[in-house]
Amino acid sequence: MKNLWKNTLTLIAKRSNSIQVLSSLLAIVFGLLFGLIVMLIVNPADAFPGFFTILTGPFQAGMRSFGNMFYRATPIIFTGLSVAFAFRTGLFNIGATGQFTIGAFIAVYIGVHWGFLGPFHWAVAIFFALVGGGLWGALPGLLKAFRNVHEVVSSIMLNYVAMYLMILLVRRTVFFGDHARSLAIQDSAELPKWFLGSIFPGSSINIGIFIAILFVAVIHIVLNKTTFGYELQSVGFNKDAAKYAGMNEKRNIVLSMLIAGAIAGAGGATFFLVGGRYLHVNAVLMPQGFTGIAVALLGLSAPIGVLLAGIFYGFLELGGLFLQGFDFTSEIIDIIIAVIIYFSALSLFLQKFVASYIKKVTETDIEISEGADIK
Amino acid sequence: MDYVIEMIDITKEFPGIKANDCVNFKLKKQEIHALLGENGAGKSTLMSVLFGLYQADEGHIRVNGNDVHIRNPNDANDLNIGMVHQHFKLVHNFTVTENIILGSEDTKYGLLTYKEAREKIKELSERYKLRVNPDAKIEDISVGQQQRVEILKMLYRQAEILIFDEPTASLTPQEIEELMKILKGLTKEGKSIVLITHKLNEIREVADRCTILRKGKSISTVEVKGTTNEELAEMMVGRKVVFELEKTKAKPKETVLQVSNLTIKEKEGNKEVVRNVNFKARRGEILCIAGIEGNGQTELIYGLVGMLPIKEGSILLNDKELSTLSIRKRSLSGVSHIPEDRQRHGLVLDFTLENNLILQNYFTSKYHHRGFLKFDTIRDNAEKMIDRFDIRSSRGPVSLARSMSGGNQQKLILGREIDRNNDLLIAVQPTRGLDVGAIEFIHQQLIDQRDQGKAVLLVSLELDEVMNLSDRILVMYEGELVGELDPSKIDEKELGLYMAGSKRGEVS
Ligand SMILES: Nc1ncnc2c1ncn2[C@@H]1O[C@H](COP(=O)(O)OP(=O)(O)OP(=O)(O)O)[C@@H](O)[C@H]1O
Ligand SMILES: [Mg+2]
User: In this structure, is residue A32 part of a structural domain?
Assistant: First the structure.
């Protein structure tokens, strides 16, 4: 038994990414444990059944809840992918929320007014949301490249600008005064379900998840297989070397932010191109962009990792919903997610921890790559 | 006998390689003990184990006769062990003072006693003639000065056992001489020193004993007095090393590079660091720009390759004006560039060896098809280059550049730039950090390039290299070219006079 464990760990030690993956899993375990402790404090009697519900949430209610899990994961996969892509190129896109918001408005506007598009309605809405999010994301990119304004500062501010702009535009163009929200989009603008409706009967799932997976695949290929990705990552890892090698750093920064913004914008569209979902005119930032940061960290800034982490997020959120059956609020889930964020942010520390443990058991040393340095 | 440090049967393995294999190393009190070995022999690793950066897999360490466990650099600090690393670990946008006190901040009522620290640093820097401005930002000072900051940092922490990992690689001959004096002075004050260096003359000058490592094993420890340079080199490489270069007389042909009236301003500020420079580099010659560090050579090269804008003048490469072109366009017009700062400019440390090898031509059709990288070609290229330039690493093409030894990182860059086969090869300090065998090899490569009709523009601070390798020498002093010399007609002393600005001649 002990030998088996040792051999497994040795195998893990030999794979280059394994340590990071393990530390992400560890962050999740810590997050869950912390949630359990909070639940024990709040309501000891229901803590264990409640915790069990979180862990098994979707399994309890069959295919319908699996459908809902993917449905909830979809926007987060987009924002997570947006943040992760920027990370890999040395940028911190904290503005995914703003880009998401812009995408959402454009999609809703087109969804309400452009019924003449017929069967192309939803696709065109997504396309323009993508373009709008991209341009919104390019702004901090331009500011960084040509005015040396740090993208974190400018994109945080642009989050607020996007929010108020959205409120203003909703009031002017697609407002339903009685409910202080946007008008309903036309049926042709709703994302279709295709065959998913019959696999996951009764759930809200739509083809948004496929679009998300498509984006994940494309970004994975761009980053890992193309000269463009090679260049973006060179700039991200070491911009002095990139400059030495004749890469156009400014252009790359703008392109990176443009693409990151476009991904988030498309996410905003997939979230709102759904019947019964409306833009509200409250001055509240949309949370998806920030959750995206967590998912990007947890997914180790790798597209595939983001996909898995996003689905895991959907899983937790669904568990949180079921939790209301007990005497808990669904905020427990937010706490768990927050703790996971903290631990994944400390991932380098966790990696060292995992590495030293593995070393103790197997006596193999491990390289830890520090990843793109994000300044 | 009293040893301050005893490292006994130290073994340290990385995936794919035993960097230290049962190594024994003993340091006497008040001695200077040199550590000699080829690139990748395991010198830095051994000292990193002593400094607590790595844990040995086997073996143990005694300090002043007591068994100790050094788990991290803080433990090492507590045992009064200090280390100047091969690649400095400085924060670029901090000042010199901030960098030195980082991690050992003295406080008074909870406030940093920055002023006192600054005074102390100033005093230390004057006492040891290190000449650094405590208020300068690291990103604005030269590699040589950064090195001195590292030395100050250690002195500031009152270390008793000082480890120097290739401290002279980036110093000028004068500075090296001063450093050697400092080292001797330090031992008189009771400090004990480990000196890693590839320069046999330095060992001869200051070291008492020398331990030789080869491929991770300790070969032997000898008294420097009773051993010749040839014997040291042979123990280190495992074969005889030729110290004389096979070099025929240059047969310069037409001009490749013509620089006229070139003036360049410093990065920030208005000072002209290169002033009205004119010269030609011809096919079939190695032209050397000599000078004391900080006299504008760095900026001159940056200006030629496009990393720094020029204020005035023209740069003609095969009659094509480069000065208005981007870095990429200049590079494609036929300029190869081995940069001065290998980790900052030459490498993406978090990329693999094979990906670093394509840094200058990943975008050419050799390496991509419709934007998709050709991984097979990249791998083939890496294997070929590893073979040709003897680039050693733990996992071959997929080793992270970060994990490679300093000299092998340098070989990677050299190979990449030489292999591009450009008309003009700019080599700045190309053999910094290389072992004697590798230097011999690289010098031969540069001569071969010359003989194949390339123009080689060499910038070097090392007089030996300048004298032995170049066919023509231009001396740079305070931003101007102050002399054109023929290495066969002058001696090092005269060259030194030009470099110090006390003699001037004509430049054609
Ligand atoms: N962190 C690491 N991970 C994997 N391999 C490593 C690591 N550090 C060093 N190595 C490998 O161990 C060997 C010894 O490296 P080391 O840096 O000690 O050499 P060195 O003697 O200092 O060489 P140089 O003169 O070039 O600086 C090299 O082959 C190197 O690739
Ligand atoms: Mg070394």
Answer: no
Roughly what angle, to the nearest 10 degrees, separates helices A62-88 and A227-237? 70
A1 inside domain = no
How far, in Å, CA of B361 to CA of B416, rounded? 10
Count the domains in chain A.
Answer: 1
CA–CA gap between residue B358 and residue B384 (Å, rounded): 13
Q: What is the per-residue pLDDT across A40-52, written as a single tens digit (0 to 9) for each?
A: 888 888 888 888 8
Residue A373 confidence (pLDDT) above 60:
no
User: How far lies B309's CA from each of A240, B227, B275, B323, B327, in Å?
Assistant: 15, 51, 14, 8, 11
Question: What is the rounded distance in angstroms from the CA atom of residue B250 to the CA atom of residue B447?
Answer: 9
Domain that holds residue A124: 73-327
Does any CB of chain B come closer than 8 Å to the CB of residue A17? Answer: no
A371 is a domain residue: no
B69: closest CA among B147, B21, B7? B7
In terms of Cα–Cα distance, which of B282, B202, B294 is closest to B455?
A: B282
> Measured between alpha carbons, how far is B422 from B117 in angstroms, rounded to an integer?
50
Using DSSP, state whether B270 is helix, strand or coil.
Answer: coil
A278, part of any domain: yes
Cβ neighbours of A101 (radius 10 Å): 32
Q: Which of A233, A243, A244, A374 to mutate to test the interface with B (most CBs of B within 10 A)?
A: A244
Task: List, in order, residues 6 or more apart from B383 with CB less than 8 Å away.
Answer: B396, B397
Which tens digit of pLDDT belongs to each residue from A302-358?
999 999 999 988 888 888 788 777 777 777 777 777 777 677 666 656 666 666 666
Please identify which residue in the block is written with the tokens 């809703």.
A108
Token pair of B207, please?
A: 């070291």
For ligand 1, atom 2, which residue shows the shortest CA distance?
B403
Q: What is the pTM of this model?
A: 0.85
